[in-house]
Amino acid sequence: MNGAGAAAAAAAAIAQAIKASGVLVSLAPEEFEQLLPRLHEPLIVYAEGGWFSTRYSYLTSYKGLAFFTKSKEPLALPRDAEVVVAKGIWMP
User: Fold this and answer.
1) How is the chain classified by DSSP, letter by letter?
2) How many domains does the structure of the chain reveal?
3) Within a domain: 50
4) Count of CB atoms within 10 A of residue 69's CB?
5) Which one of 8, 20, 48, 71 has the minimum C-beta count within 10 Å?
6) What angle do CA 89, 12, 38 make, to 5 degrees?
7) pTM score, two decimals?
8) The domain that contains 10 carries what CATH number?
């Protein structure tokens, strides 16, 4: 499997874990940024959206939980992060 395929599979695994467990932790953007240094080579799903102004959505997992945030400004992501750009991130 190539890098893009592996990233897509990992993103699908995060989405499936959310569906299966129903656990999603919503954080303020600042709290999400504070979580990222704890992760080694994190996978982060990222999407841009919004009607009147751009919103940036981020999703990652840590210790079996899924963490999500929305921000008005782009977040600073770790250099070692693998980022999957999605059309959108839908949260139940």
Assistant:
1) --HHHHHHHHHHHHHHHHHHH--EEE--HHHHHHHGGGSSS-EEEEEEE-SSS-EEEEEEEETTEEEEEEESSPPPPPTT-EEEE-S-----
2) 1
3) yes
4) 20
5) 20
6) 80
7) 0.75
8) 3.30.720.90
Q: For residue 20, which amino acid is it?
A: A
Q: Which two tokens stand for residue 24?
A: 């999603």
Asked if residue 65 belongs to a domain, the reply is yes
- Domain hosting residue 52, numbered range: 3-85
At 75, list the tokens: 């977040």
Alpha-carbon gap, residue 85 to 83, rounded angstroms: 6
Q: Which two tokens stand for residue 84?
A: 């999957």
